[in-house]
UniProtKB/TrEMBL annotation:
Keywords: Amino-acid biosynthesis, Aromatic amino acid biosynthesis, Transferase. It comes from Streptomyces edwardsiae. Residues 1-26 are annotated as: Disordered. InterPro entries: Aldolase_TIM, DAHP_synth_2. GO terms for molecular function: 3-deoxy-7-phosphoheptulonate synthase activity. This is Phospho-2-dehydro-3-deoxyheptonate aldolase. Residues 11-21 have a biased composition (Low complexity).
Length: 409
């Protein structure tokens, strides 16, 4: 059987940032060939269906809920973990639908979030320096030389875990109105994984990423001439870009020209991650410039990544900061008459103790306290909202009804 060739030129990977230093290039080649011979994980027509739904979000007629693990762990592709996250997302989506009077498009950070960018390629603990953990598709989280050495064979395990996760999503035992469509998304970071899984659709002769329905470029890999943006520009899936507080209006307009030259509603999403203290200052100029240029995009608030702090030696986030950034996001859109299109959460269906606060919206009156962080801190990377915090946040978001949302309904 011949191995399918990726329709996306491999040259797009040469200048890619945030890639692992694989110790054995020959093994990387063999793994890429294996991946290229495997079936795509998702179908092009499902990615097209998501793009159409996101088009409704861009037009102000729907809302996007995106959420899941910061970094998926291969060993946690289990029914309990997957069904717990999907059930929590579905309940949150139902709360928002009832309040906003709009359909909610539900997308998980699932079945592909196995690679992570890092601020430093190395980590030092008690005088020992090893490669940083870059996600289960690259290396292991344990701080040992064996675990931290990048191993390209992990990409094959990530593929199998993603396939298992997709089967569990499809077969989840969620009855009644909670049984909604759940699409999957992840950061398109690891080019040795993404390129072999890109395929040409026989219906349309267009290239699609076969690794997920919606892919995004991160704040660290969104250079307009970088490999990740080039890759996203060449696939027909809906795509997104994470936008930090240092972005300028021209940056967004250039990205829009590259990723959505046809100005198709639903093709491009901007996921803004500024931090609670900066959202009201940074966002108006960005939204105003894009709206003024007539560029159709989905605006989404990521209230997680700009609000990370260290408490008792652990990375954490305050529930109140997460909500405050979302509230500011809605306020800015209300003031501009634009549509606050969605939220992007790092969350889980388990009752972990990774983010502080929750409980009647007061940080110290209830919920997770600093002394609790060590009891169930299970994230391999960044802290996640637990099930109770996620559902409480949903009730608070439901109260942020805006004229644009109500009018759109």
């Amino acid at each position: 059987m011949s191995v399918p060739q990726s329709p996306v030129p491999p040259a797009a990977a040469r200048a890619a940032g945030q890639q692992p230093q694989w110790p054995d290039p020959g093994e990387v080649t063999r793994v890429r060939e294996r991946l290229a011979g495997l079936p795509p994980l998702v179908r092009p027509d499902d990615s097209d269906r998501l793009a159409a739904l996101l088009g409704e979000v861009a037009r102000g007629r729907a809302f996007l809920l995106q959420g899941g693990d910061c970094a998926e762990m291969i060993e946690r592709a289990t029914p309990a973990a997957v069904h717990g996250t999907v059930e929590t997302l579905s309940r949150l989506a139902g709360t928002l639908e009832r309040s906003f009077g709009l359909p909610v498009v539900t997308v998980g950070r699932l079945a592909g979030q196995y690679a992570k960018p890092r601020s430093s390629p190395l980590e030092t603990v008690r005088g020992l320096t090893l490669p940083a953990y870059r996600g289960d598709a690259v290396n292991g989280v344990a701080f040992t030389e064996q675990d931290r050495t990048p191993d390209p064979r992990r990409m094959l395990r990530a593929y199998e875990a993603a396939a298992t996760t997709l089967r569990l999503i499809a077969d989840r035992p969620v009855p009644g109105p909670a049984a909604r469509d759940v699409f999957v998304s992840h950061e398109a970071l690891l080019m040795d994984y993404e390129l072999p899984l890109a395929r040409e659709d026989s219906r349309t002769r267009r290239a699609y990423a076969g690794s997920g329905h919606l892919l995004w470029a991160g704040e660290r890999t969104r250079e307009p001439d970088g490999a990740h943006i080039v890759f996203l520009s060449r696939i027909a899936n809906p795509v997104a870009v994470k936008i930090g507080p240092g972005a300028r209006p021209d940056d967004l307009l250039r990205l829009a020209r590259l990723l959505n030259p046809g100005a198709v509603p639903g093709r491009l999403t901007f996921i803004v991650r500024t931090g609670a203290g900066a959202v009201r200052r940074v966002l108006p100029e960005l939204v105003g410039a894009v709206a003024g240029a007539g560029v159709p995009v989905v605006w989404v608030c990521d209230p997680m990544h700009g609000n990370t702090v260290r408490v008792n030696g652990r990375k954490t986030r305050y529930f109140d900061d997460v909500y405050e950034e979302i509230a500011g996001f809605f306020e800015v859109h209300r003031s501009l008459g634009t549509h606050p299109g969605g939220v992007h959460l790092e969350m889980t269906g388990a009752e972990v103790t990774e983010c502080l606060g929750g409980g009647s919206g007061a940080v110290w009156s209830a919920g997770v306290r600093p002394a609790d962080l060590g009891s169930r801190y299970e994230s391999a990377c960044d802290p996640r909202l637990n099930r109770t915090q996620t559902l409480e946040l949903g009730r608070l978001i439901a109260g942020l009804r805006t004229p644009s949302l109500v009018a759109a309904g």
